[in-house]
Design brief:
Blueprint: H1 2-16, H2 30-33, H3 41-94, E1 97-101, H4 114-128, E2 136-139, E3 145-152, H5 158-161, H6 170-179, E4 193-201
Antiparallel strand pairs: 1-4, 2-3, 3-4
Helix pairs in contact: 1-3, 3-6
The structure holds heme C.
Organism: Phaeodactylibacter luteus
Pfam family, one: Tll0287-like
InterPro entries: Tll0287-like_dom (IPR021796)
Length: 208
């Protein structure tokens, strides 16, 4: 029922032409738009949110368990080996490429590509201007469908991403630094924009 309402609301917004923000540069696809079937944006938005929330749930569940079992340093080490395979396995389950990207990286493999960087910058600008951040869907030039959603920092995250010497203990950060010598992902406060989900679906009508 809740999902149904969300879809209805999204459809209503579409009908009003009040949809989302400007397309990222080079992604408007306006030339092809007249021939291509209309993208079911609401459907992709729902699917993307489902995937992001499920992946987040699995990741943070594992993280909490690891923190309880062996403290922050142990959990960071666990995250170092488990986060990637876990997200990758979710990609296989859903038949979509799932990534987490950020402007301040812990794992260099999470660096945004050009289109991700453009959307991430737009989220940061909107946040700085006090705007609301929500999921966005874009069709790429190759037909694939990109889903984006903001990742906000929560209280729980600060033990590994907060202020050094504050929520993030110096001794825990030593462990993190040995795993990620170029880490930049600290100094966050609760509510800050930590990064963004980037989920890429195959072009509609194609199989992976
Ligand atoms: C126990 C320590 C720990 C906690 C708590 C933690 N993280 Fe992380 N975080 C990490 C590690 C380690 C990585 C790198 C994972 C990897 O190598 O794939 C990471 C990576 C990330 C990334 C990917 C981008 C990047 O910088 O590589 C995001 C986004 C992120 N964390 C958000 C969060 C959020 C949001 C929370 C709270 C809900 C959180 N983290 C809590 C340790 C932690």
């Amino acid at each position: 029922m809740k999902n149904f309402n969300v879809r209805l609301l999204a459809l209503a917004l579409l009908a009003l032409g009040a949809w989302g923000c400007q397309p990222a540069p080079g992604e408007s696809g306006s030339a092809a738009a007249s021939e291509a079937p209309v993208l079911d944006t609401a459907q992709y938005k729902k699917q993307g949110m489902d995937i992001a929330l499920t992946t987040f749930g699995v990741l943070s569940g594992q993280l909490k368990q690891a923190m309880q079992a062996g403290g922050v340093a142990h959990a960071a080490t666990y995250c170092n080996t488990a986060a990637y395979p876990l997200v990758d396995s979710m990609s296989v389950v859903y038949g979509a490429q799932i990534r987490r990207v950020s402007q301040k990286l812990r794992n260099p493999a999470d660096a945004p590509n050009e289109r991700e960087a453009a959307m991430l910058a737009a989220y940061h600008e909107r946040k700085a201007a006090g705007g609301k951040l929500g999921p966005e869907v874009r069709q790429l030039e190759n037909g694939e469908v990109a889903f984006y959603a903001p990742i906000l920092t929560q209280e729980l995250c600060l033990k590994c991403h907060g202020d050094l010497g504050g929520a993030l203990a110096e001794s825990d950060y030593e462990t993190i630094k040995t795993l990620y010598p170029e880490d930049e992902a600290i100094g966050y406060a609760a509510g800050d924009l930590r990064g963004m989900w980037s989920i890429t679906f195959p072009a509609p009508g194609t199989k992976q």
